[in-house]
Amino acid sequence: MTHAHYAAIESFWAPAALILAALVYLWGWVRIRRHEHDNVKGWHAASFLFGLLFIWIAMASPLAALDHEMLTAHMVQHLLLMTLAPPLILLGMPRKPLVHGQLQRLLEAIGRPLRSAPMQQIGTVVTHPALCWFAAAGTLVVWHIPSVFMLGLRSQMWHGIEQASFLVTGLLFWWPVVQPWPNVSKWPESSMLLYLFLSTLPCDILSGFLVFCDRVVYPVFLSSPHSFGLSGLEDQQCAGALMWTCVTVVYVIAAAIFAARLLSPHRSEEQPILQFESERSAVRTDPQRMEAV
After folding, report:
1. Which of its termini does the chain have fewer beta carbons within 10 Å around, N or C?
2. CB under 8 Å to 275, separation ≥6 — which residues?
C-alpha cells in the first residue's frame, strides 16, 4: 500500500474516532457540570479537547502527509503524540463516569474483571514511575534507531504501531506527574522533580546528536523534496533543535508548577500537585470562618 493511500485511510478513521471521543466527553461533561458545577471546571474540557486536537494534527492533518518528506514534520508528530497531547488529556479526565443508564451498566460489567485484585496489582506496576520512565525513554530511543526508523516509514502496520506506541508511552510517562486518579503507591511529590529532570536526558542526547551530527542520519531524507528550502542536513538540525527546545520548555513548566506547589505554605500534605479537585474539596473549612464562630 502506498503512503498516500495509507494517509487517506488514516485521515478518515482518526478524525472519526477523535470526533466520537469529543462528543462522548462533552455529553458526559455537560451532564456532570449540571449537577456538580463546583467540582468540574471549564478548563478540564478545554484541556481534553486540545489534547484530541493535537492527536488529530499529528495523525490526520496535512502535517501527516509531510512526515515521509521532512524529519522536522516527523519530529513534530512525535512531540504532539508524546509530549503535548498526553498531559492535556490526563488533565481533562473526569473522576465521574461520562456515561449513564444502560451504557454505564454495560461498561461496569465489562470493566468488573479489571477491578479484581490481580488486575489492580498489574495496574500499580504499570503506572510505577520507574516503569513509566523506562517505557517512554525506550520508545523514544528505539524508534530513532535508523533501521527501526526506516521500518516505520516503509510499512503501514509499523507506522501505526510507532504512532500508537508514542501516544501510549506518553500517557504512561505523564500519569505519575498528573495523577488523574488517586494513586495506590504514592512516591514523595518532590521525587517528581527528579523524574522530570532525568526525563530530559534521553531527549537531550538524541536531539544533540541530530543537531551536531555532520551527516544525514536517515538517508531517505536525502532524496526527499527539499521542502521550505531546507537541505537534508538542515532539516535534521531543525528537527533536533525543535525537540530539544520543546521538551525542555514543557518539562520546565511542569517542574515549576511542582516546585511552586511544594513551596506553598497553604498546601495540604495530602493534596496532589497537578491532580484535580478531590472529593475532599467539598468539605474544606475556611479557617477565618472557624475563628469567627
Report:
1. C
2. 178, 179, 180, 182
In contact, 170 and 138? CB cutoff 8 Å: no
Q: Locate 291 and state its grid cell.
A: 475563628
pTM, whole model, 2 decimals? 0.78
> In 3-state terms, what secondary structure has residue 224?
coil
Summarised one tens digit per residue, pLDDT across range 91-124 is 887 665 555 544 455 555 555 565 666 666 666 7
Q: Dump the DSSP string for 257-282.
A: HHHHHHH-TT--TTS-SS----GGGG
- Gap between the Cα atoms of 54 and 88, Å rounded: 9
Helix (H, G, I), strand (E, B) or coil at 234: helix
- The answer to whether the beta carbons of residues 51 and 88 sit under 8 Å apart is yes
Whole-angstrom Cα distance, residue 82 to residue 162?
Answer: 11
pLDDT exceeds 90 at position 10? no
Q: Which residues are CB-contacts of 285 (< 8 A; sequence separation ≥ 6)?
A: none
Query: Who's near 28: CB < 8 A, 6+ residues apart?
Result: 94, 96, 97, 98, 99
Those residues whose C-beta lies under 8 Å from the C-beta of residue 225, and which sit 6 or more positions away, are: 69
Please name the residue that has the C-alpha cell 518528506.
69
The b/e string for 177-214 (b: 16+ C-beta within 10 A; e otherwise) is: bbbbeebeeeeebeebbebbeebbebbeebbeebbeee
**Residue in the block written with cell 475556611:** 286
As a whole number, the mean pLDDT across the chain is 78
Q: Are 8 and 57 in contact (CB under 8 A)?
A: no
Say if residue 136's pLDDT is above 80: yes
CA distance 116 to 284: 32
